[in-house]
Amino acid sequence: MEVNIGVIGYGYWGPNLVRNFSETAGFQVVAISDLDEQRLSVAKTRYPAIEVTTDFKTLLSDPNIDTVAIATPVSTHFDLALNALKAGKHVFIEKPLTETAEQAEQLIAEAEKRNLVLHVDHTFIYTGAVRKIRELVDKGDLGELYYYDSVRVNLGLFQSDVSVLWDLAVHDLSIMDYIFPLAPTAVSATGSSHVEGRPANIAFLSLFFENNAIAHLHVNWLAPVKVRRTLIGGSRKMVVYDDLEPSEKIKIYDKGITLNGNKEKLYKALIDYRAGDMWAPRLEISEALRVEAQQFMRCIVEGEKSPSDGKAGMRVVRILEAATRSLNERGQPVELN
Amino acid sequence: MEVNIGVIGYGYWGPNLVRNFSETAGFQVVAISDLDEQRLSVAKTRYPAIEVTTDFKTLLSDPNIDTVAIATPVSTHFDLALNALKAGKHVFIEKPLTETAEQAEQLIAEAEKRNLVLHVDHTFIYTGAVRKIRELVDKGDLGELYYYDSVRVNLGLFQSDVSVLWDLAVHDLSIMDYIFPLAPTAVSATGSSHVEGRPANIAFLSLFFENNAIAHLHVNWLAPVKVRRTLIGGSRKMVVYDDLEPSEKIKIYDKGITLNGNKEKLYKALIDYRAGDMWAPRLEISEALRVEAQQFMRCIVEGEKSPSDGKAGMRVVRILEAATRSLNERGQPVELN
Amino acid sequence: MEVNIGVIGYGYWGPNLVRNFSETAGFQVVAISDLDEQRLSVAKTRYPAIEVTTDFKTLLSDPNIDTVAIATPVSTHFDLALNALKAGKHVFIEKPLTETAEQAEQLIAEAEKRNLVLHVDHTFIYTGAVRKIRELVDKGDLGELYYYDSVRVNLGLFQSDVSVLWDLAVHDLSIMDYIFPLAPTAVSATGSSHVEGRPANIAFLSLFFENNAIAHLHVNWLAPVKVRRTLIGGSRKMVVYDDLEPSEKIKIYDKGITLNGNKEKLYKALIDYRAGDMWAPRLEISEALRVEAQQFMRCIVEGEKSPSDGKAGMRVVRILEAATRSLNERGQPVELN
Amino acid sequence: MEVNIGVIGYGYWGPNLVRNFSETAGFQVVAISDLDEQRLSVAKTRYPAIEVTTDFKTLLSDPNIDTVAIATPVSTHFDLALNALKAGKHVFIEKPLTETAEQAEQLIAEAEKRNLVLHVDHTFIYTGAVRKIRELVDKGDLGELYYYDSVRVNLGLFQSDVSVLWDLAVHDLSIMDYIFPLAPTAVSATGSSHVEGRPANIAFLSLFFENNAIAHLHVNWLAPVKVRRTLIGGSRKMVVYDDLEPSEKIKIYDKGITLNGNKEKLYKALIDYRAGDMWAPRLEISEALRVEAQQFMRCIVEGEKSPSDGKAGMRVVRILEAATRSLNERGQPVELN
């Protein structure tokens, strides 16, 4: 079966979608829409056989198109996706799914009603690194999860409509949604803007879980260096995930503390430090978007459930909404549930 | 003039004090007290000429001793320091100064009344690296300060009586007290404990300032790797301070954004990214404690004001108190002053 | 003026040539030849307008083609380039230029006789990093050059016909040819092969210069990690050039020794160590091949002399020939006339 | 049994010997000699109970001293060690053992004749890292050894009497002597001096072995950065040993090539690349000199053979002698034995 796909938005990320869908067996990219004629002319030069248009409605009304991929600013996601679903198209959509959890719920309902696939492009969960971490968590290798602690900073593209939380923290929230067995119960966020009248360009977000697990995300568009490093602490092992490492992105440390039982003894005697080997497993090196396109294909053709379906997208948006509220109240905790 | 000094506490840090005071012109270490006979015997072997005792009162009542240095657990600081001041001794004391800001105020008052020096061992502000940052800030090289963002984590010595904030964040608070021209207005902190019944071993602390400046401290006793890295963002330049770098601890980036005036244009056009040279200045490599001992000497003999006097110590304790309250309320912001 | 170019060889490097010539003003890629039909079909999909053929002679006999770019194995270079020059085409050719210096001389003579451009693709000298080093040397910032010391190792593509010297050391030789004001006088090389019957996969090459300057190249196809690091020592400053650094590829150290004049004193007193600032200049980030294509264009149209002309190519080949002889004699030095 | 030891030379390294012998059960440091009164006064302050003298003969003639440790310039080694052995003392001596292999042979003969221990301070072979590498080699984990490739450079202490080979390469030669099952058959070395009239401050040394194994040492006193990195390639696994890494000094890569048997196929098909996990084993963190002092004790008391006995010392000196000859002939290979 051939799935004909139309791509809406050919800006920063759209070209990656076109390239990957073009090279994934089963997909045929048949049309691209973008408001900018110049972008369309770039697309036409590279892919002479693909139709281009400035009017996305052309794609929605084309009965030959089964599926649309949406790579436009988040403020347009809800309308575009709703219209696409109503036109009977499966939807592959950039993260974050929508601007509000309520919008996300509407899209989920619409997709379910029509039996269409709604897949959010949580790209990172399709990388070899994150899939390896999920495998370690699932097998219990890390033990009880204590914390997830990420730093994701760079001198970045300031966005006009959303804060750095919606641009960078969304990556970690989608990763955590995938690897963590627990859902967070509350969030506290702080941050600041250094460009007058604009949303925060630096932000810090804490997520509370049951069992004293805690997560912390650290995002910044105004950093002099690029950092992409996550520490994951467990009772048995700890992980350093550095996405900028060329090959050893995941390092697993057999380090930690053990508590000995003798509560009568002095406190310090109760804690033993453990330092063992470090191990960097070989990772799958397929491009994440390729793996994801194949997953999306299986969702459409075989009815498989997507690991980043509308509900995953909604859970992430719900946290972003709550975090934004908390940030405006200088860290005041906001309950999730 | 010779200043005779007695050192109370010969555990982890005390030996560094004894060594540095011994080798600083003007100081004569004449006595050491510790509750642990074994520690005293270690001291005696290394320094046969120094008196040792398990009773700190011997030091306080010795008219030959002008000054005491206190390197004991924080819970004992207030009593020891107060007694020392009442006995007419100058005091050099480990950080944090006390358990509460109120105690700190009492010590400050007592020292002022008696015209004695009260100096808190904020060691880091006597390093070449931090003094260089202070110099950059003072000269205006960084421009307006946007943020101070520190990560200070390792597999550390869990302490029984205080949380990781009082053990690790105290370093950054003392550095910020020294280099930042502004005082924070409020604090929000989160954290968690992974050893039942113990204070937090992982914590995150945001400090709010006027003019949208923000600071964030990131401390963890249960990390698989050691990190000591601070980013300081300014409107003109940005600094990376990595204390684990053997020689280039300070890197100054001529990077940032500039806003052009044309507000009519689209947002993205308003922000220009600037990427210039990076520069790592040569740093003074004297041991911080040596520089600090010399500073302490000048305070005693010449009446110079200490950059880490009782008031600096109190400001740091006040933030730690507020942060502890906020942490217990999952990030609820707490006003300072 | 439009220069029509035909590309011979569409394997590993050919696609980069086609892409860059396509996007450089003035060039028009009109034809591609390769012995492998599959490679041609890849080319045809990406560039439907370009003619493809398995017979390179079609390109040479096409009067519409002014110029050929040759990206084939080194053993074919001489014949292809000679035929291209005889057919009146300018030649852009991969490094190393030829298998022997004698062949290189023939090509140079042929190009000169016909007034054609012969340009060798010494790509690295068109990078921002190497051009910056050349600038530092030219301005005398480094002082007298003491050494050039490069490590270039990885788990690499073993080549069947040439040793690792011809594959990896050629990069450093072309860089040195560009930045060093001196020509080497002799070479000593060692190395070994770990695959029976194959040329050396690990090799070490020393070059001797007048004034005690020395160069050393360190190449290896069988290393567990990738390293691309060069130290350049001068009497005034020293450079670390790390090509794997994402942005600070060049670091300039104000470090070194100074000799004080008092020869009567003990030796150690004669040498003072100097440790000053480090500085990483901002580098041009244009793609090297693009810069090079523009240079090649200026050679053709404006008669500019190429920094990597046939003579530069010949000097590099002469050293590789001598090094190969030396390697076979376990380091026996070989004079370079 | 108590072994009384006298230490000759209290300059750069002597204090480490005194401290470690003092703290190793069984040894009693009873005397220190040095030509420099100031050094002796430093020693006396730290160790009031130890006798000090400017005349080493006092130590040799003292019947109460069983053993001497010699930490003086290499040019004095032979005379001091010979006299000590003739006086009936066991000898612990800094590397390199002597200036010539012939001298080394005389010392070995003298020690054997008198049944005394002659132990050379090849410190590195007593580190956790090198002992782990030896263990990997012994168990066959690395497979057949292909190469040992070390870079050891820094802005160093220029020495007046010996070249950088005798100062830095000696470390690698002693490591190789310990871990390599094979003895080298020939050596080629190159290098240069940048201080008029002084021995080489930069040098490169290749060692040839049977079976195409090769070693290469890379030493430099005039480098802007400090590097201590060794790659060891084997047919099954490869090791990166970075002595500047704070904890993961040894990384073992399951990487390499495999040859498939079909010699009819094209060359490239014959070589498969293998990329697997990386593993950093936990290392013993005892101070090397402490481990070595204990080893020396067992040699004296239990008659155990030292892994760095006079013969090991002599093998290293023999290579250094040959390398020096080769360096003076610009890489001309010199046979060993």
Describe this structure in words.
4 copies of one chain form a homotetramer. Chain A has 337 residues and is of the alpha/beta class. Chain A has 2 domains: 3-124 and 288-307, Rossmann fold (3-Layer(aba) Sandwich), CATH 3.40.50; 127-286 and 318-335, Dihydrodipicolinate Reductase, domain 2 (2-Layer Sandwich). Chain A has 10 helices and 15 strands. The first copy, chain A, has a 9-stranded mixed beta sheet. Chain A has a 6-stranded parallel beta sheet with strand order 3-2-1-4-5-6, with helices on both faces. In chain A, β5 (90-94), α5 (101-114) and β6 form a beta-alpha-beta unit. In chain A, α5 (101-114) runs antiparallel to α10 and α7 crosses α10. The two termini of chain A are 41 Å apart. Chains A and B meet through β7, β8, β9, β10 and β11 of A and β7, β8, β9, β10 and β11 of B.
Biggest sheet architecture of chain A: 9 strands, mixed
Strand count of chain A? 15
Shape of chain A: globular
Q: Which architecture name of the largest domain in chain A does CATH use?
A: 2-Layer Sandwich
Query: Considering the protein shown, what is the CATH homologous superfamily of the largest domain in chain A?
Result: Dihydrodipicolinate Reductase, domain 2
Q: What's the end-to-end separation of chain A, in Å? A: 41 Å
Low-pLDDT stretches of chain A are 263-269
Helix-strand string of chain A? EHEHEHEHEHEHEHEEEEEEHEHHE
Determine the structural class of chain A based on helices, strands and strand pairing.
alpha/beta
